[in-house]
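Researcher: Structure for this, please.
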Amino acid sequence: MNRCCDFAVDPASPAALGARSPHAGDMTELPRSLDRRTLLRLAVAGGAAGLVGCSSASPATRTAKTSAPPGSPSSTPASPSPSTSVSARGVALSAPRPWVAGPGEVDPAVKRQALRALEAIGTWSSAGGGSLAAASGRLRGLGMDPKLTEQAHPLLGAEPAAVTRVVDAQYGGILASSASVLAVLDQQRLDAAGHVHVGGTTVDVRLVAASPRWRITAMHPASPGPATTALGSAGRAVLANPRVRLPHAARADIASGQVHASVLEAVLALAHRYVVDVSIVRSGHPIYVFGTSRLSDHPRGRAVDVWALDGRRIVDPANRAFVESAMRVAASVGPYQVGGPVDLDGGGSTYFSDRTHQDHLHLGFHT
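Model: Predicted structure, token format:
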């Protein structure tokens, strides 16, 4: 029996967290690496003297550039959100780097199917490649439903080149015949003037079991909402803390003021002990506990998921003793329940574990 509150209903259900916009195979490759010659050609076409990284968005999602845990094949460095200004000359798009499963992954083929679709939609290297039609064609080439592209609209754009990389991917739920993969993404876009804009989002990808591989049925991008002008002290402290590494959607969740102070204070307490890599806070997560009609704590702003501590991935079995110790520390900072790779109290009320929680720690709060 699932006792946790951090994954969602069956993929066929209409309920899922995230914006529902009306624009909402193995052979097709991602666009090849964008070499210096290609980047310079794009810059010259836009009248730029050189490649200058820059960006423009609201302060609500400002973040610092940080590094992902070393030796993590399925992760990439956390990047600045669209609001961060990057002004060094010679900045170029990163080369495409498809997600690769690391040690300890539960049924990595399920994640791989979800992530290759998002990478294909959000990565292109020619003018028009970020259009709905072009991205749909890339999905069709992978043997996937091209209509899914309409549901991944935040990854589309008019820029002549873009690269999307997976920061982390965790399960929102995995059952025998259905799954939710929560993909935390960074996206770099090169505009016609040679400027690199950095942003990202989190997407809840729903799949069902099929042959020869699992089939994607829906994609639900995060919808954090606008930033509040009256953010509390705990929220401001989390956003400013360099020991708390937040992906784009999670940062925007906190800036929106929709995350309970108990969650924020717990994250700050953990950050006294560890460098905390957060994956999910509120948006981009399913509304319901997977396979049930029970509300998850996440969309109510009462939970946080963590995929690494001090650069050590939760999913890696080599870190098991460290993770067990961290789960006990996490239980001491205020949550009513902690989920992770091990049930430390053997069916008690404080800890739980299942297939879904092999790749992250879940901290749930009553208020």
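Researcher: Any notable elements?
Model: Confidence is low (pLDDT under 50) at residues 1-34, 36-89. Residues 36-221 form one domain.
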